[in-house]
Write a structure and sequence with these properties.
The structure holds two protein chains of two kinds.
Chain A lengths: L1 H20 L10 E8 L5 H10 L3 E8 L2 H14 L6 E5 L3 H5 L8 H4 L11 H6 L9 E14 H6 L6 H7 L3 H15 L7 H10 L18 H15 L11 H8 L5 E5 L2 H9 L7 E4 L8 E8 L7 H11 L2 H11 L2 E2 L2 H5 L1 H4 L11 H11 L10 H17 L4 H16 L1
Parallel strand pairs in A: 1-2, 1-3
Antiparallel strand pairs in A: 3-7, 4-5, 4-6, 4-7, 4-8
Helix pairs in contact in A: 10-11, 12-13, 19-20
Chain B lengths: L16 H42 L2 E2 L8 E2 L3 H7 L2 H33 L5 H7 L2 H4 L2 H11 L6 H8 L11 H29 L3 H9 L4 H12 L1 H16 L3 H6 L17 H11 L3 H29 L2
Classes of the chains: A alpha+beta, B mainly alpha.
Chain lengths: 423, 318
């Protein structure tokens, strides 16, 4: 009997021990272990191998997540929890403002990073984008997404519109001419002109100096005349049946490429891959990229590498991040997976300029995007809830208008939603 | 725990050894059972009770994710929530999806169980067959159904178009989206519930049916007067578990959204459920206090629904 009591006690103790024994115990070698967390394809796999051969005392583990949204959710949760982050964490343009609001939880790379990672490495606006409000350098720029317009040469021809590179320049010179051309296209073919109003609206929106927020983080959605003007233009285009009403990046949108459901789409540099993949081999040579973009160019997306304060080896982590974002490395990443480099030198390298994409009608895509990238001068100021207002407020509101809601009601939904998100 | 309260060597330890052993035996008899069940309760307290209570605590604050200076607002989150149209919209959506899925689900499950209880060929094959949807990964099911109910290129709309009914905008229309999501739920859970009902059906003593048969009762009479009343406890169980699951529905509406990764539940929140709104509040809007308040409101709703359910089911099958 007594033994049973003893056995019970031991069993309880063992269970308790098991619960507490999890974790603990790093490999006790003298090497420095670094971790890096990325999403999508950064093209770093081979580079990290190279880095470890060149730095035998460092072991790097990469954690990859498929999509940006879950990556950033995890980032913010671990930032709040105070532990669990990798030594190097990638952040995406759309989440930059949210990260900068927590800049006190990241290292200032201008203090701990190597000297060669100075401002002259990047396009000026990209470098500025990596800074917090109080001037700390939070992130080293990796890639950017210069905006071009992609169009189907064959579909434009059937509508009697010009389809050669010079001819389309007139169509894509301003948003007005773009929507007018769309009207003609719809009248001639009875088919929609572009894929979805959100893609168009976001591109238009990002061209303005002031977006959803002013420089002092005041929400100006209701008072900024540019936003209302964009809204009116886009909802008018919806009323004119120019939109194919396919939700961006959803599977119907993907299918729309294959079935030639629309004739044009905005395409940042990183979009070429999805156009090729979604349109399939049957449509090879039919898509073309135009360097003309309505009302001048723009940027959509791109990322930064940061070193959170949680890192136990901030100096080594900053060195790794600086090395990865150096022009010669970003070129290799671009060749491997296609993220378009944001480094001045990389934009001049022959490897980039000579890059061709045989899927497209005019295949010299490398030189085309490099040109567009050089024309960009500044990025719009982004407030704390900017990404959310774009994805969770304006995108659904535009979708609602596409689904039959009136433009005025949709606008009210957008303004109310933005106020709620910014609260 | 209890072990630490064991008396150490007390002064009267000089008492005969037999008496001491006796006392230990008694103690063993009283204490050991509690020790055996203790691990469960210890783990439950850690991963069940603590989060529950801590959520209640957090819900009293204006607590942003990563905020080190959360402000105490008392019941502020709850009063805000009660005046929040998006919450009521989500609650109505949840109840609508729950009713659209659970009611047909329980009825069909009983019908399927009756069919499976007859003398079928390949009986085991059929019985396993109805469980197959349950084995499929929920995320895979969500993605496939999202595809089937696609507005432009979905199979369902192609068929509807072909037979002349015309396309339905499963994403935009509120009721249509609820129906599509309910279909997803039913496809997955009906077979599972049918097997539970079938097990209960087989536990009904055959004598009852035989007696009724001799008395001249037809199959329908035997079903309503013997099978259904005997199934009552099981049906109550099935209804309560599907209530709990139905009111917490999350994955299906999240994956149904045409916008990948979106938590808005459609362009005007037409199929955003309470848990989806909770998730959006916590991880998109990063308002953990508000999200915790939603969690507690949902908890109360489920408790109320479970109680209501219990009484209704009891009355119906009396």
């Amino acid at each position: 009997m007594r033994q049973r009591l003893l056995a019970t006690a031991i069993a309880t103790a063992v269970v308790a021990g098991l619960v507490t024994a999890c974790g603990a115990g790093d490999a006790a070698d003298s090497k420095i272990h670094l971790t890096i967390a990325t999403f999508g394809e950064f093209g770093y796999e081979d580079l990290l191998k190279q880095y470890q051969t060149e730095h035998p005392n460092i072991v790097v583990t990469q954690h990859k997540v498929g999509q940006a949204a879950p990556h950033h959710k995890e980032l913010f949760t671990k930032l709040a929890a105070g532990s669990g982050l990798d030594d190097v964490e990638a952040i995406e343009e759309g989440y930059r403002a949210q990260v900068m609001a927590k800049a006190d939880k990241f290292n200032d790379l201008s203090k701990i990073g190597p000297a060669d990672a100075g401002p002259d490495r990047w396009l000026p606006w990209k470098y500025e984008g990596g800074k917090s409000k109080d001037g700390k350098l939070i992130g080293y720029g990796t890639d950017i997404g210069p905006l071009a317009m992609c169009y189907r040469t064959d579909l434009l021809q059937t509508a009697g519109l010009p389809s050669d590179p010079d001819g389309v320049k007139a169509l894509f010179s301003s948003w007005q001419s773009y929507f007018d051309a769309g009207k003609t296209y719809v009248q001639k073919t009875g088919k929609p002109w572009f894929d979805t109003s959100t893609q168009i609206f976001n591109a238009m929106h990002n061209q303005h100096d002031v977006g959803y927020y002013d420089q002092n983080d005041n929400l100006v959605v209701a008072t900024n005349p540019d936003i209302k003007k964009d809204w009116d233009a886009v909802t008018q285009a919806i009323a004119d049946k120019e939109s194919a009403k396919l939700v961006s990046f959803g599977n119907e949108w993907q299918a729309g490429f294959k079935t030639s459901a629309f004739a044009t789409t905005v395409c940042p540099a990183w979009m070429l891959g999805s156009i090729e993949q979604n349109s399939g081999p049957d449509n090879k040579g039919k898509w073309a990229v135009s360097s003309a973009f309505p009302d001048g160019g723009g940027n959509w997306g791109g990322s930064y590498l940061t070193v959170p304060l949680q890192s136990k080896h901030p100096k080594e982590a900053a060195e790794l991040a600086a090395w990865l974002t150096a022009p010669q490395q970003q070129i290799k990443a671009f060749v491997a997976k296609g993220p378009f480099p944001s480094q001045v030198q990389a934009l001049q390298s022959p490897e980039l300029l000579n890059t061709t994409n045989a899927y497209f009608a005019d295949p010299k895509t490398g030189a085309l995007y490099a040109d567009l990238a050089k024309k960009l001068t500044k990025a719009q100021y982004k407030g704390p809830a900017d990404g959310q207002i774009q994805d969770d407020v304006f995108a659904p509101a535009l979708q609602a208008v596409e689904q039959g809601k009136s433009a005025a009601d949709g606008w009210q939904q957008a303004v109310a939603g933005a106020q709620k998100a910014a609260k | 725990m209890t072990l630490t309260r064991l008396p150490a060597r007390r002064p009267e330890a000089t008492a005969p050894v037999v008496a001491r052993r006796d006392r230990l035996d008694k103690l063993d008899l009283k204490v050991s059972p509690y020790l055996y069940v203790a691990p469960f309760f210890a783990v439950f307290a850690l991963v069940g009770m603590f989060p529950l209570l801590y959520t209640a605590y957090v819900s009293l604050f204006d607590w942003r994710l990563g905020d080190d200076t959360a402000k105490f607002v008392g019941v502020g989150n709850y009063t805000e929530l009660l005046a929040d149209p998006q919450f009521w919209n989500a609650l109505v959506n949840t109840i609508s999806i729950f009713l659209l899925s659970s009611v047909p689900q329980v009825i069909v499950a009983i019908a399927v169980a009756v069919l499976l209880n007859t003398n079928l060929r390949l009986r085991t094959g059929f019985r396993m067959g109805v469980l197959v949807p349950y084995v499929a990964s929920l995320v895979a099911v969500g993605i496939i159904f999202g595809n089937l109910f696609g507005v432009n290129y979905g199979l369902v709309n192609s068929v509807l178009d072909f037979v002349g009914i015309g396309k339905i905008d499963w994403q935009a229309d509120r009721l249509a989206s609820h129906l599509a999501i309910a279909t997803m739920v039913d496809w997955r859970w009906t077979g599972y519930n049918a097997l539970i009902v079938l097990a209960a059906m087989q536990a009904i003593p055959p004598e009852l049916n035989e007696a009724a048969l001799i008395d001249g009762a037809g199959p329908w009479r035997r079903f309503t007067s013997i099978t259904l009343p005997m199934l009552r406890p099981t049906v109550i169980f099935v209804v309560i578990t599907s209530t709990i699951g139905g009111l917490q529905i999350f994955t299906e509406p999240k994956l149904f959204s045409a916008m990948p990764g979106s938590d808005t539940g459609g362009s005007t929140n037409q199929f955003q459920t309470v848990t989806l709104y909770l998730y959006q509040s916590a991880f998109d809007n990063q308002q953990l206090g508000y999200a915790s308040a939603i969690a507690w409101m949902l908890f109360l709703v489920i408790v109320l629904a479970a109680i209501g359910n219990y009484f209704i089911t009891r009355r119906l099958s009396r």
